[in-house]
Specification:
With about 100 residues, the chain is an alpha+beta fold. It is about 20% helix and about 45% strand.
Length: about 100
Protein backbone atom coordinates (compact mmCIF):
# COMPACT_ATOMS: atom_id res chain seq x y z
CA UNK A 1 0.00 0.00 0.00
CA UNK A 2 1.29 3.50 -0.79
CA UNK A 3 2.20 5.87 2.06
CA UNK A 4 0.90 9.33 2.88
CA UNK A 5 0.30 11.51 5.92
CA UNK A 6 -3.02 10.93 7.63
CA UNK A 7 -5.39 13.77 6.67
CA UNK A 8 -6.95 13.66 10.14
CA UNK A 9 -4.00 13.51 12.57
CA UNK A 10 -0.98 14.12 10.32
CA UNK A 11 0.73 10.88 11.33
CA UNK A 12 2.04 8.21 8.95
CA UNK A 13 -0.65 6.33 7.05
CA UNK A 14 -1.13 3.97 4.15
CA UNK A 15 -3.97 3.89 1.66
CA UNK A 16 -5.62 1.63 -0.88
CA UNK A 17 -7.89 2.73 -3.69
CA UNK A 18 -11.47 1.47 -3.33
CA UNK A 19 -14.80 2.00 -5.09
CA UNK A 20 -13.22 1.33 -8.49
CA UNK A 21 -10.38 3.77 -7.75
CA UNK A 22 -12.66 6.67 -6.87
CA UNK A 23 -11.95 6.69 -3.10
CA UNK A 24 -9.17 5.95 -0.62
CA UNK A 25 -9.33 3.60 2.35
CA UNK A 26 -6.76 5.17 4.68
CA UNK A 27 -5.18 3.24 7.55
CA UNK A 28 -3.42 5.07 10.38
CA UNK A 29 -2.12 3.79 13.73
CA UNK A 30 -3.98 6.59 15.56
CA UNK A 31 -7.19 6.97 13.53
CA UNK A 32 -7.50 3.33 12.42
CA UNK A 33 -9.40 3.03 9.11
CA UNK A 34 -11.55 5.53 7.26
CA UNK A 35 -12.70 6.18 3.68
CA UNK A 36 -12.60 9.48 1.77
CA UNK A 37 -13.16 10.70 -1.77
CA UNK A 38 -10.75 13.29 -3.26
CA UNK A 39 -13.05 16.28 -2.73
CA UNK A 40 -13.57 15.22 0.88
CA UNK A 41 -9.84 14.82 1.47
CA UNK A 42 -9.36 18.40 0.23
CA UNK A 43 -12.04 19.69 2.63
CA UNK A 44 -10.46 17.79 5.53
CA UNK A 45 -7.17 19.57 4.85
CA UNK A 46 -9.00 22.91 5.10
CA UNK A 47 -11.03 21.93 8.20
CA UNK A 48 -10.20 23.40 11.62
CA UNK A 49 -8.10 21.18 13.88
CA UNK A 50 -11.00 20.46 16.33
CA UNK A 51 -13.08 19.11 13.42
CA UNK A 52 -10.24 16.83 12.27
CA UNK A 53 -9.75 15.66 15.86
CA UNK A 54 -13.46 14.83 16.13
CA UNK A 55 -13.29 12.73 12.95
CA UNK A 56 -10.12 11.01 14.19
CA UNK A 57 -11.79 10.19 17.51
CA UNK A 58 -14.88 8.84 15.74
CA UNK A 59 -12.78 6.64 13.44
CA UNK A 60 -10.57 5.29 16.23
CA UNK A 61 -13.58 4.40 18.39
CA UNK A 62 -14.94 1.92 15.82
CA UNK A 63 -14.31 -1.81 16.05
CA UNK A 64 -12.28 -3.46 13.29
CA UNK A 65 -15.51 -4.60 11.58
CA UNK A 66 -16.30 -0.98 10.66
CA UNK A 67 -14.68 1.97 8.90
CA UNK A 68 -15.59 5.63 9.08
CA UNK A 69 -16.95 7.02 5.80
CA UNK A 70 -16.35 10.77 5.71
CA UNK A 71 -18.51 12.56 3.16
CA UNK A 72 -19.97 15.90 2.14
CA UNK A 73 -23.36 16.14 3.83
CA UNK A 74 -24.53 19.54 2.62
CA UNK A 75 -23.83 22.11 -0.05
CA UNK A 76 -24.91 25.47 1.35
CA UNK A 77 -23.95 29.11 1.03
CA UNK A 78 -22.16 31.22 3.61
CA UNK A 79 -23.50 34.70 4.51
CA UNK A 80 -21.58 36.27 1.61
CA UNK A 81 -23.24 33.89 -0.87
CA UNK A 82 -20.19 31.69 -1.52
CA UNK A 83 -20.66 27.94 -1.76
CA UNK A 84 -19.91 26.08 1.47
CA UNK A 85 -19.64 22.31 1.89
CA UNK A 86 -20.18 20.55 5.21
CA UNK A 87 -18.44 17.32 6.21
CA UNK A 88 -20.20 14.49 7.99
CA UNK A 89 -19.32 10.92 8.86
CA UNK A 90 -20.89 7.58 9.62
CA UNK A 91 -19.74 4.01 10.17
CA UNK A 92 -19.91 1.47 7.37
CA UNK A 93 -19.14 -2.26 7.36
CA UNK A 94 -15.41 -2.68 6.65
CA UNK A 95 -15.98 -5.48 4.14
CA UNK A 96 -17.90 -3.03 1.91
CA UNK A 97 -14.67 -1.03 1.43
CA UNK A 98 -12.14 -3.77 0.58
Amino acid sequence: MPDQNCPLCGGPATFALVDFGRAKRIQCAVCKTFVVYPDVERLIAEAPRPNREAMSKAASALSDEFVLLISITADTKDPSGRAKQTLGWDSEPADKWQ
